Amino acid sequence: MRLQVIDHPLVAHKLTALRRKETPSPVFRQLVEELMTLLAYEATRDIDVEPLEIETPVAKTTGTALSNPLPIVVPILRAGLGMLSGMERIMPTAEVGFLGMKRDEETFEAVTYANRLPDDLSNRQCFVLDPMLATGHTLIASIDYLLERGAKDVTAICLLGAPEGIKALEDHVGDRADVTVVLAAVDERLNEKGYIVPGLGDAGDRLYGVVD
Ligand SMILES: O=P(O)(O)OC[C@H]1O[C@H](OP(=O)(O)OP(=O)(O)O)[C@H](O)[C@@H]1O
Ligand SMILES: O=c1cc[nH]c(=O)[nH]1
Ligand SMILES: [Mg+2]
Q1: N or C of the chain: less Cβ packing under 10 Å?
Q2: Is 80 exceeded by the pLDDT of residue 130?
Q3: Which CATH topology does 2-49+67-208 take?
């Protein structure tokens, strides 16, 4: 597994505003979108491209185009949905599939309640969007799901990670080169409720309000 923590002053600045408990939902959503745009730029460095012959108004030349099949972006509902617009902004032609996953707050196991993805992901590069990597159960389940369906590689883009979750993911994935995790920051630890410390609270609730 490859791990990339984005060291950029704008990322750190926006993340600090995101963490503040007084930041209201509309601002929180805007910051998630902005952060996602910055992370997506780095996370798509190894995207597959191919040469494309084109004509400018002046001459013929060889340009570059995204390869087919196009990448597929997979936001993990709910909180990952807040990251989708930032990704679409820089890669508008990518396809989008959805996984709905809810963490059981007693056992911390990930429960899948929705799936709108192609069964066959052969040769597809997949980008999983989920702001929080806490115990890692959600990301492990979603990455396994995509690789089992033939994904060529999976890049998970997260805002915050806990060392415990990153280790769990590393232990699970091992030295396979087809899984990359891109993060804006690695925090201190998980608390007894499985929340990232200092973290930003429940990302889904802060984006969309509290539901039971
Ligand atoms: O690493 P883990 O311990 O699995 O935790 C991370 C997951 O928890 C949160 O989802 P949540 O279950 O709160 O659902 P929500 O997005 O609908 O709020 C978060 O958005 C991740 O998907
Ligand atoms: O801190 C955390 C941990 C899991 N999910 C969240 O939304 N926040
Ligand atoms: Mg939540």
Answers
A1: C
A2: yes
A3: Rossmann fold (3.40.50)
Least Cα distance to 130 among 94, 110, 160, 103 occurs for 160
Written as six digits, the tokens of 182 are 């891109």
pLDDT tens digits for 45-59?
999 999 999 999 999
Ligand 2 midpoint to CA 84 (Å): 18
pTM: 0.97
Identify the pLDDT of residue 53. 98
Whether residue 107 lies in the annotated active site: yes
pLDDT-derived band at 175 (thresholds 50, 70, 90) equals confident
- Surrounding ion ligand 3 within 5 Å at CB are 202, 204
Proximal ligand: closest to the CA of 158: 1
Domain ranges across the chain: 2-49+67-208
